[in-house]
Amino acid sequence: MSSSAPALSPHPDRLLPPAPELRATARELYAAVRDLPIISPHGHVPASLLVDDEPFTDPASLLITPDHYVTRLLHANGIPLDALGVGAGQPTEAESREIWRLLCENWALFRGTPVRYWMD
């Protein structure tokens, strides 16, 4: 028995439409743009953070508090927005850790969502 299993890799068509007549077109379109940089007007990270290359203060302030997809799902499941730091400004280290704990404790809520896909 081998001590190392073969590496798993996601199927290249995993995000393409399942209908064969659409999938062929989707593959062509993807092939034409896959090596281009992503330029998206819908970002949740301020462009200045990337341009200035400044370190972020904590992961909760970067990935949870400003992301309405994350906070909306947690809030819909009973977590108050103030517990997630929404609208409160920069959290203290203890508050940031608690916000992160709330995300981790509720991570199962994100199964099958784009947020889970992006975070993973």
Instruction: Please give the largest β-sheet.
Output: none
Fraction of residues in H or I helices: 40-55%
> What's the shape?
extended
Derived from helix and strand composition plus strand pairing, the structural class reads mainly alpha
* Unreliable residue runs: none
Please state roughly what percent of the residues sit in beta strands, choosing from under 5%, 5-15%, 15-25%, 25-35%, 35-45% or over 45%.
under 5%
The run of helices and strands is: HHHHHH
- What is the residue-mean pLDDT, rounded to a whole number? 87
The helix count comes to: 6
Question: Kindly, what is the distance between the CA atoms of the first and last residues, rounded to a whole number of angstroms?
Answer: 30 Å
Q: Please report the total strand number as a whole number.
A: 0
Rg for CA atoms: 19 Å
Outline the fold blueprint.
Elements lengths: L19 H14 L13 H6 L6 H6 L3 H9 L16 H13 L8 H6 L1
